[in-house]
Design a protein that fits this description.
The complex is a heterodimer of chains A (169) and B (140). Chain A is an alpha+beta fold. Chain A has four helices and eight strands, in the order ααββββααββββ. The chains are: A alpha+beta (169), B alpha+beta (140).
Amino acid sequence: MARKRPDPVQVVKQRRDATLSALVHGVPYIQFLGIEFERRGDELTAILPFDDKLIGNPMLPAIHGGVTAGFLETTAVIGLAWSVLWDDVESGRIDMDELTSGKLPRLPKTIDFTVDYLRSGLPRDAYARARVNRSGRRYASVHVEAWQDQRSVLFAQATGHFLMPQRES
Amino acid sequence: MTKRKAEIAEHFINAIPHCKALNMRLTSIANGVAEMELPYDLRIVGDPDTGVLHGGAVSALMDTCCGAAAMSHPASPSGTATIDLRIDYMRAATPGQAVRTRAECYRITKSVAFVRATAVDDDDDNPVATATGAFTVEGL
């Protein structure tokens, strides 16, 4: 039986990167904190480059707990939106013109978010990855881990629940 | 709390770079209760279609306010750090309006301060978010 010929790698990558870029660069708060995302296949790593305006305790100095919370929440929301969009991106069903013209896919809404502060955030770049533990039609549960210099030494982790955007039918 | 301690706490909070970047303001602080305000700002919008502020900015406001409440408790010797903070988002903050929050340190031990907070916009009766957290009690 003939199998559909896979799309050329450049086409696939272009579609993935354009989708991710639209998700990330359309949100002012993400730009304000300076968060970027790196992608390997479907795996995303969020990066928060250190900046003086992120400081919460000037004496230590340490990253503000609210920045850590915002960084983790952003990682969770983008990670969740990305996992939901993935099939449409891969199949090419996603409307690229709409996406690049600035019409964002609707993002999940945070119901609650709990941050566990394990150690103070140093004045260095921070990284985070989200894991979607459950993604239903209406609700989702996402866990996020954040670290700085060493992947195995977390400085914060969080769990959040989200309300999924309803697809227009 | 002595007047001097309140002044120190106020000074400390107003010197936090991230709070300055968000133009946050401490409006009241005494005896384990603190109030703060976050003006509406297009730079911290989370949903560009509606102009609603991002949850992260509300988190920063509530975290700071809870920390301030813990520090201002008569039994707190000085500084504090967040151990854990849970935020429940009840509704989107109305675009164009400031978010105001009131935090109360309702229990403090030698090592831990327990704090809760509520955030509202111009509609005082319908909370935008609530928070509960545990904070460290640092020695002098």
